[in-house]
Amino acid sequence: FTAMALSFEGRVVLVTGAGGGLGREYALAFAQRGASVVVNDLGGNTKGGGKSSAAADKVVEEIRAKGGKAVASYDSVEDGEKLIQSALERFGRIDVVVNNAGILRDRSFPRTSDVDWDLIHRIHLRGSFLVTRAAWDQMKKQKFGRIIMTASAAGIYGNFGQSNYSSAKLGLLGLANTLAIEGRKYNIHCNTVAPVAGSRLTETVMPPDLVASLKPEYVAPLVLWLCHEQCQENGGLFEVGAGWVGKLRWERSRGQIVRQKNRAMTPEAVRDGWDRICDFTDATKPSSVQESLQAFVSVLSQVDAGGQVEASPAAAAAAPSGINPSVAIGQILPRSTFTFNHTQCILYALGVGMSTKDPDHLRFLYEGHPDFSCLSHFGVIPPQAAFMEGLTSVPGLTIDLTQMLHGEQYLELYRPLPTSGTLTSEATIADVLDKGSGAVVLLDVNTYSGEELICYNQFSLFVVGAGGFGGKRTSAKSKASLPAPKRAPDVVMTDCTTRDQAALYRLSGDWNPLHIDPSFAAIGGFKAPILHGLCSFGFAARHVLKQFANNEPSRFKAIKVRFVKPVMPGQSLQTAMWKEGSRIHIECTVKETNDVVLSGAYVDLHQAAEASPEPPAQGGALQSDLVFAEIGRRIKEAGSELVKKVNAVFSWEITKEGRTAAHWTIDLKNDGGSLQKGPYSGKADVTFTVADQDFMEVVQGKLNPQKAFFSGKLKVRGNIMLSQKLEVILKDYAKL
Ligand SMILES: CCCCCCC[C@@H](O)CC(=O)SCCNC(=O)CCNC(=O)[C@H](O)C(C)(C)COP(=O)(O)OP(=O)(O)OC[C@H]1O[C@@H](n2cnc3c(N)ncnc32)[C@H](O)[C@@H]1OP(=O)(O)O
């Protein structure tokens, strides 16, 4: 791939303080990429004294000598209008303003005079204000503008002897934050940089060799990118220097409510909550006044609801759960945005166990595949990550995250998901139920692409130990789960999760430590971290897609699942499937323990196909699959001839070793006659394997599968006791 070079052809850029150091570097770099540059410099000294046109002229000459377009401006930034006027007169527009000019008047705080203070504030803060205001209307008319404010580490962290400078520098960040909000709708973006580079201003505070090695050309590329039309960053703060760029943001501790209903708030309560107030574990990252305020509104209702004084605005992880349905129901969570591309689609497919071992999976794992697609059940991902955070600040819902389990999930797709895009989701607390042993929170989420409704999710969260608050037990709003038919399943598919399945799945956005952190899991009462419910859900959904929809995600309509027991990473999942028209009922069992883990589940498809154990009949690699499918069919026929009332279901699977094996589930429960005698009723889950040449013989009709079985060429694996008994039974029948 060759990335297109970033061009500034046709753009007009003003750089203040461009006679030397960083400003000069910016001016040269913009001009080199085609911009017309106004090189502004008063030509004074670093303390704000003196005046000369030489500095700006020299840079203009340099630019012109290289064939670039530039004009000099010698006015002070305090004459902001004049600077912008030069740009408009000479080049007819102004697209970019880089507020870079600055001086120093370092003094320890008590020795800082009024003049020291005012001068610094006038040049840095007022100067940037005046220049930017002069450009604003023009940028608004053009519907394009890029503004850079120059802050400093001295402002962000403080620095001895720079009280005037550091306050002005951080003042610029505040100015930029507001301009970013006011300019957004006119495509005027304002970002702040805190550069570290050797310059006239830093040579007084840094050793000479450091000044020499921290070159201005290690800063300019960030400024150019932030000012380019392709860059959508707005309101960001970046530290930059030495060839490194990093972004900064605010972090807020979960804090502590230190007020109780109908009681005065006291300094002692603040003292007693101090550790929690200053504890940044699970900190939040508010990025707007609205987000910041939300927590306060939440505190008001939590204190009003009474009894929740232990909980922080964002419900500390170990705080006890507290549910107030009348406050919580109907609450709308902040709208969330999810931007994704092929990377997230592929990561999700890997997270739910897809593998290049199965050629059918390639269309979900390789963005260059002609049918590259996003798995249909990826529809649970866009809303999920954002709401994990949003959920913890809903008034009336104080959830102890160590006790929160995913109870049920419903997903309905209205059109196939794209492989990239930006989706927005809106979530409402639809209902809160009191199940005695826990509380169930129903979260309805609509996800949109622009105005178009793409999918609907209902997340059902089971908060263990939070029941008993006297709420209702059932809800008309809950999407019902449905029992599986009583007959034997039409097809069963087995798949192994890996030891790292949860570590992989969480990269799709559910960062809940319950799935990776042993001590967090222990607090929740688990011996080890458990698998995400939505991960086993993903396995089951793709089993249906494979068996009944030829892996075609556009055939998927809806899915409902109840998580009845946790799955541990590394366990094998066995999905039993029953076709009832276009609805496929499913039940998932952990093969190693025989525990049912997903129940009451179903997938609705657009036109379900018949269960087809046969893999696609093409490609050399699939030859053995074909053979297994064929032998399975013949075994089934032979089996039903031999043991008339045994229900035999054949499926095929990829085993742990990567081999394809025939797989025959025999349900003895329903058979009549002599099989009901004796200790043999029950479920046998048996796998038959056979040497390749024998398969070929079976397929070619040279070897009867019954004979293969009784001659020992066909091996039995699975529940050993039961399979041995089964062998005996089958042999008994054969004798008959
Ligand atoms: C924003 C959204 C983000 C979403 C992501 C969520 C964060 C994720 O990171 C978290 C996870 O993925 S956790 C992993 C997946 N989930 C699990 O493993 C839970 C497995 N289920 C259980 O352990 C039990 O069913 C258990 C513990 C849930 C219930 O067991 P018991 O307490 O023994 O309940 P029981 O006595 O059987 O039944 C009592 C009543 O509760 C109903 N119920 C049972 N299981 C339920 C479940 N899974 N979901 C909903 N309701 C459930 C029962 O029906 C019964 O109610 P009623 O008497 O009215 O029928």
Question: What can you tell me about this protein's structure?
Answer:
With 736 residues, the chain is an alpha+beta fold. It folds into four domains: 12-248, NAD(P)-binding Rossmann-like Domain (Rossmann fold, 3-Layer(aba) Sandwich); 257-292, Helix Hairpins (Orthogonal Bundle), CATH 1.10.287; 326-605, Hotdog Thioesterase (Thiol Ester Dehydrase, Chain A); 623-731, Nonspecific Lipid-transfer Protein, Chain A, CATH 3.30.1050.10. Helix content is 32%, strand content 23%. The strands form four sheets. It has a ten-stranded antiparallel sheet with strand order 10-13-14-15-12-17-20-19-18-16. Strands 3-2-1-4-5-6-7-8 form an eight-stranded mixed sheet, with helices on both faces. A four-stranded antiparallel sheet has the order 21-22-23-24. Mean pLDDT is 82; it is low at 307-319, 612-632, 638-689 and 716-736. The structure holds 3R-hydroxydecanoyl-coenzyme A. Residues 384, 387-388, 391, 404-408, 435, 437-438, 440, 443, 459-462, 464, 473, 510, 512, 514, 530, 532-533, 562-566 line the site of 3R-hydroxydecanoyl-coenzyme A.
